[in-house]
Design goal:
Beta-Lactamase, elongated, three-stranded mixed beta sheet, disordered N terminus, 9 strands, alpha+beta, 2 domains, Trypsin Inhibitor V, Chain A, 196 residues
Amino acid sequence: MTSCASAPVGEGGTGAEAQLVNYTLLGKTGTAVRFEGGRYIRGEYTASFAALFPADHPQLIVIVKIDNPQGNYYGGLTAAPVTRMMLQQALASRRVAIDRSRLTVHDNKIRGESGPAASPVSVARVVLTWPYDVADVKVKPLPVPEVAGQSVREAALALHRRGFRVNLRGLGQVSRTAPPGGESALPGTAVTVWAE
């Protein structure tokens, strides 16, 4: 026995607890009676929530599954808030490969402000079919930006905007990176930045 609801996450829906303040996401809640040994187990549930973030051009997929939640057992009341917390942490982290320039442009459009245009080479667009098949994903390598001589902050921002993760070694001005600037790497690749 399963109960599910899907829609863009917003007020009044079953996934409202996952909604972020400034960004929209797509989500699907799930609540199921646990099934083991060929029978349903009375009073035991699995709650779940799957999210695509942001809603207009997804960059992250988050799936939360909670076995036997205590108290409320609906996915929208248990797994959705955990999803929101995970997305908030991802947005605050510099280790998650999110193209923040695309988020900024979208956020400015909502408020009617003009913002910097996203670089056309920032991140390759990925379109997934449903049901998802790994063979359908075709991600192209991108050139690693040349950041030698820049401050660590400027370098990290440039690398994150291209969709790369950053491993920092030192503080001050960047002396080199691995892979080096100009070399191609897949989005999400960790670029080690040495600074002095």
